[in-house]
Structure formats: C-alpha cells, structure tokens
Amino acid sequence: xxxxxxxxxxxxxxxxxxxxARRTGYEYMPxxxxxCPSLKLKFDEYLKTHDLVIPKGEMSVxxxxxxxxxxxxxxxHYYKDKDFKPGTxxxxxGVAHEPGSEAAFHMTYMHxxxxxxxxxxxxxxxxxxxxxxxxxxxxxxxxxRIHGDGFAVMGNMQCTVWETxxxxxxxxxxxxxxxxGSPMAAALLDRVTDLAVQRxxxxxxxxxxxxxxxxxxxxxxxxxxxxxxxGEWLKPRLKRVIDSAKAINPDILIFYHSCGxxxxxxxxxxxxxxxxxxxxxxxxxxxxxxxxxxxxxxxFHGTVGxxxxxxxxxxxxxxxxxxxxxxxxxxxxxxxxxxxxxxxxEVPVENVVAYIDACRDYAGMR
Length: 366
Fold this sequence. Notes:
44% of the residues lie in helices and 13% in strands. It has helices at 13-21, 37-49, 71-78, 120-125, 136-148, 162-169, 171-179, 183-206, 227-233, 235-246, 266-272, 287-294, 309-312, 315-329, 349-365, and strands at 58-61, 66-67, 89-90, 96-99, 108-111, 130-131, 152-156, 210-214, 253-257, 276-278, 299-304, 335-339. The model has no long low-confidence stretch (mean pLDDT 96).
C-alpha cells in the first residue's frame, strides 16, 4: 500500500469509516445514498454515460434467514373480513402492506393483524417469525468477505422494537396499552425484544463492526411520546438489545435511526448505549446545536435534508450543505454526512451527483 505524504499508510475504508464514527479523524468522507425505485432507474441511466466514483466505507451483512407463517395463514386467521387490493404484500410479521394510488409510488397503507386483540393470551399465541440460528454461518462468511475487501461490516436491524410492535398492534392501540400499563404491551414488546436480541447477538458474533438499530420516536415537530413513557417502556428494551451486543464486543458501534424531532430523548438514547444518531433532519433539528450539546458523546449520520435541499435545492446548494455540515463536525469527524432518508422521485439526479462529488472533494479541500 502506498504511503501518504506524512509517511503513514492510508486508512482502509473500514478504518476510515470507523474513525469518523469514533471522532478520531479521517482521510475521506464516504457517500451513502438510498434511492427510491424510480430515481434509481434514472441514476442507473446516468451512470451508463458518466464516470462517477462513489467513496464507500461500509457494507451490510445479511440478516439471519427467517421461517414465518404464510400470507395465506395470516389472511385466514387475522384478515378474514379484509378485501385487499391487488399487489398487497403480507410481511413476515403478518403486517399487510396495501398499495395506494399511482401517485403514492412505493408508499403503502398498513393493516395491523393485532388490531382487535384484547388479551395477553392472543399476544402470546400470535405466530412471530423464527430467525434460524443455523444461518449464522452465512453471516460470518459474508462478514469475512467484506472485511477482506477492506470495508466495515454493518448489521441492519432497524424497526428494532417499537416500530415492529406497533406495526402489528397498531400505534394507537399500543400507545394506549403502554399508558394504561397493560400487560399486553409488556408481552408484545418483550417478545419482539427477544427476537431483536437474538439478531443483535448473531450479527455481533459474525464480526459486525456496527449495528444499525432504530425506531421512529419523533414527529416533525416534537417527540412522539413523553420522556417518561419512553423511559419506562422502550429505553430498557433498547438497552437490553445493545447490551447483548456489547457484551460480546464492547467496541461495536451502535447506530440508531429515528426520523423527526428527538432532541429531548437523545440523553436516554446515549444512556442506552447509542453511539451514532441518524438522520438529524434539518427540517426538525439544528445540527450545530446538537453537535455542541452532544458531540462529545455522540456522532451523527445524515443531516442533508430530503424534504428540502435534496429535492428543491440546486447542485450548488447541495454541495454547500455538505461542506457546511462537515465544517461543523470538525476535523476529528463525528459526522457521516448523507441524505436523511430515501431519496424520492422529485430529487434531480444532478443533486444526487452533487452530493457524491461533495463527499469526494471535501477531504482534499480541508
């Protein structure tokens, strides 16, 4: 490997990615994009006629294979009175995703199989998916390949506890269960947490450098629930998942995703063991303020608005935003800058390219 001007060997993408997250300096800024299907088609067309180097830092290892009840089983037992539109998908948790109008693109309407439940017995009898431990060997081999290529290994298991639970029960139902102190809430959240722990342990044992957890706990303007409700019901279960991974590898980095405004809940996330907060929507929170308040204990992932600059700004606006946010983070890192969510159909391809170019160019211009 060639040496830099300082005489040091260049960082591998893995070393660089992890060093950013740990706030210990970096050599380049990796780029991360998630494109909706229609935008991906446009971007793929662009790549056919343009050379574009996308700096990377990490790759994801597969989840454990799953054994789950069939869609027909869920229809027969939990959706007897439902008449779904063509194209409806029932996932491994039994949640039905019904397509909307053509204008909805890839967005769906969710149906909750536990909507009418009124007892713990129903919660306990419900067929949750089974994650197959024998597929852990596949994870290990995948992680070894990724490490062999020089990249960090990410285990993705977002919708870790809260979202998975309310998708099945319905948000209003589960919120009421929690506020009433219902044993139904404890039964459901504990069952989901047990599975999250199994997956976290498997990812960590495979050699993952990072886990990407997450449950949306913020709205556009405020936190989704009170600090006390979160602290009673969700923080202990999130901490249990994180503790299970850190007991195996104390150095594993925990990324946590929540859309929206979550400022008042950040201290509890840090106490639970979160290392990196995603996505820091600029329409909801100010990155500079968060960096000043929490930057000694927390790193960040995101900060480039998918409700603002990415769809409605110019390429110059995108570039300026990337540079400004990285300047705020500073030379030691602490920010893996990227769009805050999936990029939707209205985002110009030119803005996607501007984001990638800005990540590539920033380190060389510091």
